[in-house]
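Entry 12.
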Amino acid sequence: MNTIQEVGADRLLFSADYPFEDMREAADWFDRLLINDNDHIKIARTNAQALLKI
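Predicted 3D structure (tokens):
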């Protein structure tokens, strides 16, 4: 939450430090975050799409 407040959800991407972290655990943790749906979608998908132009 501090990072979202500091830089904004428009500047964040979801990631996991594979192979040191389990991707399923990271995804489950991210899915349980108490953030609004719009920010969740940005961090999970649309920010990466915009950055990578896909």
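Annotation: DSSP finds three helices and no strands in the chain. The chain has a mean pLDDT of 96.
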